[in-house]
Amino acid sequence: MSDQCTIQDKILFVDDDQNILDALRRNFRKEYILETATSAREAAGVIARKGPFAVVVSDMRMPGVDGVQFLTRLKEISPDTIRIMLTGYADVQSSIAAVNEGSVFRFLTKPCSAQHMKRVLDDALRQYRLVTAEKQLLEQTLSGSVKVLTELLALVNPDAFGRANRIHRLVRQIALHLGVAKTWEMENAALLSQIGCMLLPSMAIQRIIQGESLDGEMQQVYDMHPAIAADLLSHIPRLENVREIILYQEKHYDGQGAPIGGKTGPDIPLGGRILKILVDFDQLENSGKSAEQAQNILRGREGWYDPQILDALAKVLSSKTGYEMREVRVDQLESGMLLAEDVQSQRGMLLVAQGQEVTPVLITRLRTYAGISGVHEPIKVLVPPMEERGKQKQEQC
User: Fold this and answer.
1) CA distances from residue 256 to 226, 304, 348 in whole angstroms, order as listed
2) Which end of the chain, N or C, is less packed with Cβ atoms under 10 Å?
3) Count of Cβ atoms closer than 10 Å to residue 237 Cβ
4) pTM, two decimal places
5) Cβ neighbours of residue 247 under 8 Å, at least 6 residues apart?
6) What value does the mean pLDDT take over residues 307-318?
7) For 11-20, 219-228, 321-330, which range has the lowest pLDDT when averaged over its residues?
8) DSSP letters along 181-194, please?
9) Which of 237, 272, 271, 238 is nearest to 255 (CA)?
10) CB 38 within 8 A of CB 21
11) What is the tens place of the pLDDT at every residue in 249-271?
């Protein structure tokens, strides 16, 4: 096998004729990383153990699950894999089904010469590299955009950023408790939920967080912050669902509240229903209510919240009882700790609001500031139990 072969050269051939598989292996074992299977069921096992594959070539006519059904299922579990159909039957309807249902890249008929097969495989590998490279670039660009917006919010309005950070910490836990497998959109919606507050002075956000009302025009601007954030995000591709979650963060479960009209009840995005509860819970806690008192107030607001999410919040909060309170210096801060109080400069300026999770970026920022102007120490933090710290390290890996 060539030393230049990489994971992007992995190809799986699926055919119920072992002779054909043997011939393919003889012809291409030095060119690519090859695996073979004699049925769709066997191929599924190979994919589970040794996947993902850059290219999968499947025979059309196989006992049990045919090639179209197999490639259609493959599209669902591995959408980036390039799919090729190989058959001895020049059947027009089967070809159409393979292309439409399985998104087949090429449709080849038997017998297929080794030279022609190699050209098609090379084309498929180039297509795979193109698709994955574009996807990686888009994901990095998207991640970078979110990071820039959150860092900007941290600089412009630390109080709004602190709220977003506290909410973000709970969103993922509640989503996982509700059985949501992919929490990426909800987590980013939480991080970006307060960017519309950049138009407000920090003092106004402090009053809102503490449960106080604003005057006149300032209150109107605050009421518009979900729509402002949604409008800002409309210029970033692939954030459509994140944008909708943020837009509905003030919507009551019974349909009251902004946006006027629109969705109600379970039709409201799940992320929006979670944000509504967490924003209000955060406000109650920061106005001096205990977690238990805040939850009782939320349950007393008839029609405001999804009862299932209220139950999930209670269970998530009850799992936090194992946290240990400590006082540490800036150079003792570790990722995963939770700030139990505001972090201030030696002159009393707010640097980081309480409730935020300590991250490598936050540690770097505080150490830099401590070296230049000084940070008020010690800092009170909550340290998670050992088992939770282990989970955090695994997730970071």
Assistant:
1) 15, 8, 41
2) C
3) 10
4) 0.60
5) 226, 227, 229, 230, 259, 272
6) 92
7) 321-330
8) S--HHHHHHHHHTT
9) 272
10) yes
11) 999 999 998 898 889 999 999 99
Distance CA 164, CA 139 (A): 22
The fold adopted by the segment(s) 157-320 is Hypothetical protein af1432 (1.10.3210)
**Residue 235 vs residue 392, higher pLDDT:** 235
User: C-alpha angle 310/311/316, rounded to 5°?
Assistant: 95
Partnered with residue 350 across adjacent β-strands are 344
Which neighbouring-strand residues pair with 35?
A: 12
Please provide the average confidence, as pLDDT, over all residues in the chain.
Answer: 84
The terminus-to-terminus CA distance of the chain in angstroms comes to 31
Sorted by sequence, the CB contacts under 8 Å of residue 340 that are 6+ apart come out as 325, 354, 380, 381, 382
Give alpha helix (H) positions in the chain.
18-28, 40-50, 67-77, 92-102, 114-156, 158-177, 184-192, 202-209, 216-223, 225-233, 240-247, 270-286, 291-300, 307-318, 360-372, 386-396
> Reduced to 3 states, what is the DSSP secondary structure of residue 64?
coil
Rounded CA gap, 90 and 47, in Å?
A: 28
The string of DSSP codes covering 248-272 is: TTT--TTS-SSSSSS--GGGS-HHH
Domain locations in the chain? 7-134, 157-320, 323-397
